[in-house]
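In response to the reviewer comment on reproducibility (Comment 2.3), we provide here a single inverse folding case reported in full, input and output, so that an independent group could reproduce the run without further information from us. The structure tokens appear first.
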């Protein structure tokens, strides 16, 4: 019997199965009454992610299925958690009023929320764009498009894999769309880290893309956007719009344009450089990024603009200088700076608010927020327009005070409008006579009831009459039992209590109907008026978006001034020269991380085309070589973003590309391939450099044996020196052999990061001084670790000899010879001491060619431990 009934699928589950079949990749939230329910696999996932109870449906039958749900009003709490966990969530709602239908309620998916297509504030981060990306593999090139549906920004580009990879690093999309047949290629080219979704191949077609885009923009060609030549990019952009349709996002008026990412206008940085410089993504957990240090923006638009500026520093000198001028102006005009910042603080996320207007998801309270934000723009516009700084004036003149929009919102909406329109009191008093009248009926009831009570008391002579209402019986007149006999016949008894009776009268019934009718009408009218307002507001999408962009810029520039003031940054000079002159430059992040009382040691870096094109920096580990390299790149980058820089003075011949490469540090554990990767990466630099490039090489060549490493580092430096572009280069190395290069190559100069050797420690002076280093530095570290003198002496001696040797075959013989020669020195031990034998073996086993300083240190530590143990056992 049970088995028979179990086979029968209920109409509800039948409907569920049909809808689920259309969205197999999504977690389906199925509205049943006041709940969103999930079933089967979805329920198991939802219960785990949301930490909600999972139950069963089907009572042990073979149709038993898992079930988990939550109240519909908690959607805003639970939905973001599912999306953040990487789920695609299909929201299936009831499409008709259950009260109006006798059969099963019609249901359908009203929205598919995916990580890249989110409008919900709980999913979005205010200072970060949330980009959806589509990538198309064309015949020669790849096309890419990015859309932030929450702000309406839509961008496209095309190029090779490296180029696409760099853009992905810049824009960090939350979701990437790719055609199914390219799944493997995508993982190979871009790794497994992206949240990818694979679509059918037919979506990736030129005609379809053009049609979709032209339909959306209501254009006949994409020429006007300057993207018509980007065939692959257009396909990617078409895929994005297609996907929005698929996810039930149809109201997209806020996507007003598509823009080409004009890479030629920005400094080129490849992904290694972006990562290595830790611009906005830390390499270690809790590490501080450049963005963390420089971000003083105070609005969501400013925060997002800053990220964009950081990813895309400018090359156009005039544009850079314009930004510098505004920053300087803010610094010179403190009061204006403060006033503008104060006003910006009052501005909400107008960019996302206007998107919500377009998508019809805006709440009454948000419309009020938008109006208040636009009001805060009015004084900014006036102040900027009245300033005597040209660039600021342009911003002021371009800002739109949106007066008509503000006035209309003000007269339509109540200033205290609720989030949920059903709460009532959304539309302002005095906006519509009809509404005012209804309100007076609905809300002036107290007066009317008081009068009725007075009349009835007089007519019946009952002194303790009461008029009230409850949810079950509506309005009633209550009579205490002592007066029961005085109740007129026309009253109808509704409820009996212990000490009283409740009645209704004809008049009370009529009154109730009128009030209820009025309340219903008020709600309907309010909804209609609010909807009309929102539709009307669509005309203001473009001006509000323009304001958002200008406020974002202004916030950024104000933030640069704030940063300069707080940290003694100076205005850099950008010109067309090829020189780089930094006086007393600092590393913006490290200087903020130093322990209290410690000062960052500033350094000069001078590079030019004629005398000092390449600087070879030697110095022991931890002396500050990498810091000098990175601070140089960061100073250039900050300057070309329009920011001031951490230095005493900086003169920068505009840079078009920044390359950084860091040699593999743990090649031994990672094997040959790491070295190959390092060489491949370096090769890509050598093939792409120009006369305005800045190249930073940190310990390149470290990932192989010493002599290979030296030879490669030598060859790379020689290549850069001889390159007609004469790219400016900083090369940090521990191969002091490279210091010899300056004798042959006139534009290579030696510098070292100075240290002072004290009796038993090394003091880092961190000053970059002219001149090379004469020897290796591993021993310094050993010294610092407090090695016994004998061990140090021995290590020093061995190293010196090894440095002189030229091939690894000679090493063993040499070491043997050295042992015989030096054995007497180690009088601390008995010659036949088994420990000595063991240490001997240890040292002989070391392959110095591939030994990194840290490993040397560890080895020495091991030997020290042996000796300490020996010493202790003797005592
Ligand atoms: N100019 C400076 N002033 C103060 N502290 C500094 C300075 N430069 C570097 N440091 C400190 O020294 C640490 C090591 O610097 P850095 O990593 O640049 O050394 P390195 O010579 O490149 O070492 P390695 O060869 O091991 O990579 C930094 O993390 C920082 O704390």
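Designed residues, in position order:
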């Amino acid at each position: 019997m049970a088995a028979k009934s179990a086979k029968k699928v209920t109409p509800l589950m039948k409907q569920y199965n049909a809808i689920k079949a259309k969205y197999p990749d999504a977690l389906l939230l199925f509205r049943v009454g006041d709940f969103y329910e999930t079933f089967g696999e979805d329920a198991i996932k939802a219960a785990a992610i949301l930490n909600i109870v999972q139950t069963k449906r089907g009572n042990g039958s073979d149709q038993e299925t898992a079930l988990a749900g939550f109240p519909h009003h908690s959607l805003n709490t639970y939905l973001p958690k599912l999306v953040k966990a990487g789920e695609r969530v299909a929201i299936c709602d009831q499409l008709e009023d259950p009260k109006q239908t006798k059969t099963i309620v019609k249901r359908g998916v009203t929205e598919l929320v995916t990580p890249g297509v989110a409008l919900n504030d709980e999913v979005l981060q205010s200072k970060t764009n949330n980009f959806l990306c589509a990538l198309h593999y064309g015949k020669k090139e790849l096309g890419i498009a990015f859309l932030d549906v929450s702000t309406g920004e839509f961008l496209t580009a095309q190029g090779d894999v490296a180029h696409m990879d760099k853009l992905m690093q810049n824009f960090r999309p939350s979701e990437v769309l790719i055609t199914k047949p390219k799944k493997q290629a995508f993982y190979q080219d871009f790794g497994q880290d992206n949240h990818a979704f694979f679509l059918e191949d037919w979506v990736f077609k030129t005609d379809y893309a053009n049609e979709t885009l032209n339909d959306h923009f209501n254009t006949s060609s994409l020429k006007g956007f300057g993207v018509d030549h980007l065939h692959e990019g257009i396909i990617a952009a078409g895929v994005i719009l297609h996907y929005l349709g698929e996810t039930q996002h149809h109201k997209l008026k806020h996507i007003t344009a598509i823009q080409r990412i004009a890479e030629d206008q920005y400094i080129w940085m490849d992904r290694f450089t972006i990562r290595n410089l830790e611009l906005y993504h830390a390499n270690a957990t809790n590490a501080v990024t450049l963005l963390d240090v420089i971000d003083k923006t105070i609005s969501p638009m400013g925060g997002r603009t800053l990220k964009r500026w950081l990813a895309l520093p400018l090359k156009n000198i005039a544009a850079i200088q314009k930004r510098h001028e505004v920053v300087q102006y803010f610094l010179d005009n403190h009061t204006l700076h403060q006033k503008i910042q104060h006003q910006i603080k009052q501005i909400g996320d107008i960019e996302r608010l206007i998107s919500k207007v377009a998508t019809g998801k805006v709440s009454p309270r948000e419309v009020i927020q938008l109006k208040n934000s636009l009001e805060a723009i009015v004084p900014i516009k006036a102040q900027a327009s009245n300033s005597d700084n040209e660039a600021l004036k342009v911003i002021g003149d371009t800002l739109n005070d949106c007066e008509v929009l503000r006035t209309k919102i003000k007269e339509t909406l109540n200033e205290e409008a609720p989030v949920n329109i059903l709460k009532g009191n959304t539309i302002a008093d005095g906006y519509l006579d009809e509404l005012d009248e209804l309100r007076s009926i609905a809300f002036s009831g107290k007066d009317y009831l008081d009068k009725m009570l007075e009349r009835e008391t007089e007519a019946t002579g009952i002194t303790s009459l009461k008029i009230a209402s409850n949810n079950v019986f509506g309005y009633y007149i209550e009579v205490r039992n002592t007066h029961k006999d005085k109740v007129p016949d026309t009253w109808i008894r509704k409820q009996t209590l212990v000490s009283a009776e409740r009645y209704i009268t004809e008049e009370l019934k009529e009154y109730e109907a009128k009030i209820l009718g009025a309340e219903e009408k008020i709600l309907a009218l309010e909804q209609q008026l609010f909807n009309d307002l929102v539709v009307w507001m669509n005309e203001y999408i473009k001006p509000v978006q323009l304001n958002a962009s200008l406020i974002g810029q202004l916030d950024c520039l104000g933030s640069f001034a704030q940063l300069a003031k707080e940290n003694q940054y100076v205005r850099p000079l950008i010109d067309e020269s090829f020189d780089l002159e930094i006086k007393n430059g600092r590393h913006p992040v490290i200087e903020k991380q130093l322990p209290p009382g410690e000062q960052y040691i500033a350094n000069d870096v001078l590079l030019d085309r004629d005398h000092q094109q390449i600087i070879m920096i030697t110095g022991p580990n931890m002396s500050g070589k990498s810091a000098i390299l990175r601070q140089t790149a960061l100073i250039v980058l900050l300057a070309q973003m329009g920011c001031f820089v951490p230095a005493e003075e900086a003169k920068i011949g505009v840079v078009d590309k920044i390359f950084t490469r860091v040699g593999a540090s743990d090649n031994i554990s990672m094997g040959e391939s790491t070295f190959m990767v390092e060489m491949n990466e370096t090769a890509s630099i050598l093939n792409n450099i120009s006369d305005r490039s800045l190249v930073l090489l940190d310990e390149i060549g470290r990932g192989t044996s010493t002599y290979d490493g030296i030879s490669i580092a030598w060859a790379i430096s020689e290549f850069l020196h001889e390159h007609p572009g004469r790219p400016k280069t900083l090369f940090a190395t521990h191969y002091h052999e490279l210091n010899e290069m300056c004798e042959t190559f006139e534009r290579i100069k030696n510098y070292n990061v100075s240290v002072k050797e004290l009796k038993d420690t090394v003091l880092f002076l961190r000053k970059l001084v002219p001149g090379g280093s004469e020897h290796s530095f591993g021993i310094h570290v050993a010294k610092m670790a407090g090695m016994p003198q004998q061990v140090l002496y021995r290590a020093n001696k061995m190293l010196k000899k090894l440095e002189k040797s030229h091939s690894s075959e000679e090493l063993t013989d040499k070491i043997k010879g050295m042992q015989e020669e030096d054995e007497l020195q180690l009088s601390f031990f008995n010659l036949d001491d088994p420990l000595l034998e063991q240490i001997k073996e240890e040292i002989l086993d070391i392959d110095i060619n591939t030994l990194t300083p840290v490993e040397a240190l560890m080895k020495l530590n091991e030997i020290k431990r042996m000796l300490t143990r020996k010493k202790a056992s003797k005592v």
